[in-house]
Design brief:
The complex is a heterodimer.
Chain A lengths: L3 E4 L2 E4 L5 E7 L8 E6 L6 E5 L3 E2 L7 E6 L2 E6 L9 E6 L6 E2 L3 E5 L1
Parallel strand pairs in A: 2-11
Antiparallel strand pairs in A: 1-3, 3-8, 4-5, 4-9, 5-6, 7-8, 9-10, 9-11
Chain B lengths: L2 E5 L2 E3 L5 E8 L8 E6 L5 E7 L6 E3 L7 E6 L4 E6 L8 E8 L11 E4 L3 E5 L2
Parallel strand pairs in B: 2-11
Antiparallel strand pairs in B: 1-3, 3-8, 4-5, 4-9, 5-6, 7-8, 9-10, 9-11
Classes of the chains: A mainly beta, B mainly beta.
Amino acid sequence: EIVLTQSPGTLSLSPGEGATLSCRASQSVTSRYLAWYQQKPGQAPRLLIYGTSSRATGIPDRFSGSGSGTDFTLTISRLEPEDFAVFYCQQYGDSPITFGQGTRLEIK
Amino acid sequence: QVQLVESGGGVVQPGGSLRLSCAASGFSFSTYGMPWVRQAPGKGLEWVAFIRFDGSNKYYRDSVEGRFSISRDNSKNTLFLQMNSLRAEDTAVYYCAKPVGGADTSEGLVFDIWGQGTMVTVSS
């Protein structure tokens, strides 16, 4: 199975700053089938990005995704207070679908 | 609006059984493959099982193969997960989720709507 490794484990930033989260796959992700989710404590995950760079419905344009092959990035420009959470990447091009272990984005 | 509501979780002893349900509304349930995804306390997300839109094919992660069974009733817009021979490591919040895309589409395995989850605790 494809193992996804996210870095950093924790990212401490201030509102207004930009954030860059990384997701590295153990082998190439088929057809760029890579997604990003945000999860806040006690809540279900929320889909942000799919197909590497397509924003899900209702997701603000300060969230963007990029990458190919084994290296993918979620970029959040101008952090808002509500953006601080745990972020997971997911690949869905190969069976079984797998998730990364998460990056915690915390307020500095 | 699109909604998924899980139920059936609880506390069970090792070796016991539980049946989870996921009631779907607001979308054409019978045209979507559906998954169960779990999250152990303080841990990340883990795919558990997936069933095709018509129930014709079912897929499981290795650690639950032979113990868990996924099924659906399209006439009642409901997804199920029968969990037998439960182990401590099955303790988690179990979510059902709706894919972005319908059956056999490229976005059939990425999920834009999630239920609130139901907690399963396996403990003696």
